[in-house]
Amino acid sequence: MTHNTVLNWPQHLHWEDYYQPLGISEALRLLDEFKGDAKIIAGGTDVLVQMRRRQLSPRVIVDITRIPGLDQIREEQGIIKVGALVTHTQAEQSLLVREKAPALSEGASHVGSPQIRNLGTIAGNLVSGQPGADTAIPLLALGAAVKLVTAKGERTIPLNEFFVDIGKTAIHGTLGLITEILIPAQKRGETSVYLRLASRRALALPILAVGVVLSADLKKKRFLHTSISLGPVARTPIKAVEAEALLKDAPIEEKLIREAARKAAQVSDPRDSLLRGCSDYRKAMAENLVERGIRQCLDRLEGIHG
Amino acid sequence: MGKKKVEFVVNGQQVSLEVRHDERLVDVLRNQLGLKGTKTGCREGECGTCSVILNGKIVPSCLVPVMKAEGGKIVTVEGLEQEGELHPLQSSFIEKGAVQCGFCTPGMLLAAKNLLDHNSEPTEGEIRRAISGIFCRCTGYRKIVQAIQAASQMMKSSK
């Protein structure tokens, strides 16, 4: 937290130049040329606010929104590919995402406001590295990976290795960019949900958010695979690995669901926050939300296959 | 500070301007084009009063660097009135008392227009969601929702 008062924030922003490259290689060349003083923006909804608050002061802006081909969502061989310029609105409304990665569609629907969702991108939400990011939490549960490109080349890393600390990820907007987000498309017998607790239904940061991805054999009453993510309860969005293991190939039983929820809440370490509530409350709610998430996934599977 | 040329269409009119490339759309609309209907509030994309329609989408013009608008189509509140006739939403806002201090009204009208452009008979829930990014501290939103509902009915029956 800086000690700048609101009155101290500038009315106008300054940068020396504003570039709108038409290709990824041109964008990388600019980053290289300005050696850490050029910042990538897409929607700009985080970067411009950070600049106003004097948390960032790049010399030049590299706006990548004119690069063609990055604004698509498509499925290839069981992988949903979300381009770097796909906005929250697009992800929320995409029939493909709704059907095969519903938790992401639900997460995207909660980001900021309709206006912010029209500008802001999923990739940008990830790069900002906030532990309570509404698209990061479902994507972590969904087992997504990101394709990163820098001057050194391209690499793909899973999201659970992407988040480093608050506001810090494996990529920095002065060094490179995410070109694509890769999400395993859900198959039959598998579904996902994103649940969020906030003080209002709109324009409110999450007190707590949970992503659950689950596959089950309802005839045999058994869980198959479960993936659970939580935020903002640590310095990055986190996975509840022990809870996941507990449900692996386990019978669908009340007691077990409650136990898994309890275990998931144990990995959370939320701070006392004037904005989000005290730690004890948030921990209790984490348990509650995970339990609800598991049940909602089961309900969805019943709805689809029952 | 270097200037750049930017061209876009505002309320149906092609404009070509020399701008500082570090300006944001809201300031260019207000200060260079004199379109003061678009208000500046928080300057951080939170309050929604600077909302305009850019290429068919409602966006906070305080978070749009003006260079992003190059080649785009913009509708501001001044573009709602056609040949001296108020837009049905504007008449409806007046009639239903949906305007109090008026500071949120331009954003509200544009969010409502953008909704009705895509969905001519929205439910109350859809209306509330469409205007959820625009703060009104006077009305409690009720009359705004009613005005949008009434406008949607009016536009339907006049078709």
The biggest sheet of chain A, with number of strands, parallel, antiparallel or mixed sense and barrel status, is:
5 strands, antiparallel
The total count of strands of chain A amounts to 14
| Largest sheet geometry of chain B | 5 strands, mixed
Structural class, judged by helices and strands of chain A?
alpha+beta
* Number of individual domains of chain A: 3
Indicate the multimeric state.
Answer: heterodimer
Do you know the CATH architecture of the largest domain in chain B?
Roll
Mean pLDDT of chain A: 94
CATH class of the largest domain in chain A: Alpha Beta
Structure description:
The complex is a heterodimer of chains A (306) and B (159). Chain A folds into three domains: 53 residues, 2-Layer Sandwich (Uridine Diphospho-n-acetylenolpyruvylglucosamine Reductase, domain 2); 112 residues, Uridine Diphospho-n-acetylenolpyruvylglucosamine Reductase, domain 3; 116 residues, CO dehydrogenase flavoprotein, C-terminal domain (Enolase-like, domain 1). Helices cover 33% and strands 25% of the residues of chain A. Chain A has eleven helices and 14 strands. Chain A is globular. The mean pLDDT of chain A is 94. A five-stranded mixed sheet of chain B has the order 2-1-5-3-4, sandwiched between helices. The relative contact order of chain B is 0.15. In chain B, helix 2 packs across helix 5. The N and C termini of chain B lie far apart (50 Å). The longest helix of chain B is centred in the last third of the chain and has 16 residues. The radius of gyration of chain B is 16 Å and the shape is globular. The mean pLDDT of chain B is 96. Chain B folds into two domains: 77 residues, Beta-grasp domain (Ubiquitin-like (UB roll)), CATH 3.10.20.30; 70 residues, DNA polymerase, domain 1 (Orthogonal Bundle), CATH 1.10.150.120. Classes of the chains: A alpha+beta (306), B alpha+beta (159).
Short recap of the structure:
The complex is a heterodimer of chains A (306) and B (159). With 306 residues, chain A is of the alpha+beta class.
